[in-house]
Design brief:
single chain; 388 residues; alpha/beta; FAD/NAD(P)-binding domain; 2 domains; eight-stranded mixed β-sheet; seven-stranded mixed β-sheet; 11 helices
Length: 388
Amino acid sequence: MGKGIYDVIVVGSGPSGLNTARILSSQGYNVVILEKKTNIGEGIVCTGIVGTELKEYLALPDEIVLHEIRKIKLVSPFGSSISYSFPKPIAYVLDRRGFDCALLDYAIRCGAEVRFGYRVREIKIKDEYVDVIAQSVLDRGLNQIKAKMVILATGAQTELAKRIGLGYPSSFLKAAQKVCQLDHDGSVQIFTGSLVSQGAFGWMVPIGECSVKLGVMSEDDPRKRLLYLSKKVSVGDSSRPFFKRIPQGLVYGTFKERALSVGGCAGQVKTTTGGGIYFGLVCSQIAAEVASLALKKGAFGEEILSEYERRWHEKLKREIERGMSLRKIWKRMSDPTIERLFGLLNSFGLLDLVASKANFDWHVSALYDLIQNKALRALVGKVVSDSG
């Protein structure tokens, strides 16, 4: 191959890209991460919630934990609420920049090289190598970087995937979030209703003694939705809001000769909450394993790299597709119907059923078990029927 050619170029320094680079570097491969931002964790729009198992798996430092989640409160369109407390933490709210810094440190300690301020302009997949053209944001100079293969981990940015012929998400929710000074009772609050969101929900997540992350996801412009929610909860001083797109739906074609995609640009995002950290990390493990096999064999064709998509679809396809079905049902529910749903959840011990089956990283299975209740099935059936 010649001198100066990397084994793998990873484009993007979010959790999926960093974890992929960490695993491959720990196996002795020569990996470089290219990131267009000049600093790790810059401009992140994320609540930073992860399950307890993930924190333990990555051995994350305690100092990046902002809040332990032990209580969930659901708020209806008309102000009714349902609260549930758990005997031990079910998830943690992390300092997302601190989380990314920890993953970056792991990757560097394993031998990965990181170049910040490098925007990838072009990727050429050739017979013997991948040729990546990256522009420095500091001096505007162009750099040619070669590798045996490339892994895209560009989040919701899908332009590079489109250019090289990889599959990409075609459906997106829109999110807005800001940090606010506000007293709270320690619970994560989920807000529902047509004024809060079209097709999704809003949230308030504690990150300090008197501070929260306030945000919304919606199919339409989230700005007015966040403004409504801000007034609803009477927030104090707040930072300016940040906005992002959240990929939705199962993606095919996340591999081709000498290339894979992982994380948000591959659609590896929860359809229930819009969270991408856990699914992205699960798939980064698979991507690293398949890439390692290709490197060992010196074979980078679709025949070997297709194993990546087969394996991550086997892991997530059912969860993503069922989640999309549930989201469609949720979108059809009117505010009065949601209020009826709250009433049913307060009846028959259904909330206890949800709590007993809930797994923070795998919501859909618990929700499907829940709707086996006859009253809920009748309500859901009526919504579907009324909506055609």
